[in-house]
From TrEMBL:
<dbReference type="InterPro" id="IPR016193">
    <property type="entry name" value="Cytidine_deaminase-like"/>
</dbReference>
<dbReference type="InterPro" id="IPR003786">
    <property type="entry name" value="FdhD"/>
</dbReference>
<dbReference type="GO" id="GO:0016783">
    <property type="term" value="F:sulfurtransferase activity"/>
</dbReference>
<feature type="binding site">
    <location>
        <begin position="300"/>
        <end position="305"/>
    </location>
    <ligand>
        <name>Mo-bis(molybdopterin guanine dinucleotide)</name>
    </ligand>
</feature>
<dbReference type="GO" id="GO:0005737">
    <property type="term" value="C:cytoplasm"/>
</dbReference>
<keyword id="KW-0501">Molybdenum cofactor biosynthesis</keyword>
<dbReference type="Pfam" id="PF02634">
    <property type="entry name" value="FdhD-NarQ"/>
</dbReference>
<keyword id="KW-0963">Cytoplasm</keyword>
<comment type="function">
    <text>Required for formate dehydrogenase (FDH) activity. Acts as a sulfur carrier protein that transfers sulfur from IscS to the molybdenum cofactor prior to its insertion into FDH.</text>
</comment>
<protein>
    <recommendedName>
        <fullName>Sulfur carrier protein FdhD</fullName>
    </recommendedName>
</protein>
<dbReference type="GO" id="GO:0006777">
    <property type="term" value="P:Mo-molybdopterin cofactor biosynthetic process"/>
</dbReference>
<dbReference type="GO" id="GO:0097163">
    <property type="term" value="F:sulfur carrier activity"/>
</dbReference>
<comment type="similarity">
    <text>Belongs to the FdhD family.</text>
</comment>
<feature type="active site" description="Cysteine persulfide intermediate">
    <location>
        <position position="160"/>
    </location>
</feature>
Amino acid sequence: MTRRLTSRTPITRVYREEINPDIAATTDASTKAQRVSLANSRIVVSERVDSLAVEEPLQIRVDGTDFLTTMRTPGNDFELVHGLLHAEGIISRASDIATIRYCGGAVGNDGLNTYNTLDVALTPAKTEDSNQDFATVTAGKSDSQPFSLPVRSVLTTSACGICGTTSIDDVEKRSSYPIHPVRPTAEFVLSLPGLLEAGQKAFRRTGGIHAAGAVSSDGQLILAREDVGRHNAADKVIGAMLMHGDLPAKQMYLVMTSRASFELVQKAVLAGFSGLVTVSAATSLAVDLARQSGLFLSGFTRENRFNLYNGFLEDTP
């Protein structure tokens, strides 16, 4: 296991104390089901109560304008919105959002939202001097120029997210963070899905939910989030880090229980992650973007093997 950084202890403390991991995804739905199995050429049918991953719409309104409605697993909705708006280039830091609240105005004592509409108000445009991690950016809305939201479909599914909206060149132009190269060992890469598994509480109950996790280069799972949509899970992780001022995620890995799509590589690059590790396949455009941006990318990361699409390993020539 490679150990190139000291541990990110401050991040670990913040996420463990201020964000309850038990509400990363809610699974309060259940239904009666028949389990059908084949045993000795005989069909066996038994009754059972099945736990289901919750999927509900979340309508997001920005400055009074309908932005989109996405299908998601309720829980950590504020993080989801921060991550999504960051990926879309609407915000670059948490302070670009003045207020965010449920339309009904309430969150229950159990931490679960009771409404499915979020109103987001952006702050006036602010330009900050650049430093080694942040390029000079203008974010939020301007008092002199009305803020214009990008055109989006009315509904995005939990499977798709917001697909095909950005080219590789657009991602490079929008990226504020340099990608810090990493050179992990093969053993370290293979350990990452197992680290993420520890944070998959909803998956263990339902068997039908994705997870995303941020892992430091010394092998600490900083935080994990779950959602029926892989893009939503990634947005929740990135949104949480954005809200706590922990972007860019330099020399850290975004680990996903999904394939590596272009959109997920895009989110990782825009958040400043050094690597993206997935348990399934990568798409051609995802590989192209990873190679052009310098993002470490592996797919089919399971058991004792993985496909390395971009980057180098410490223990290979």
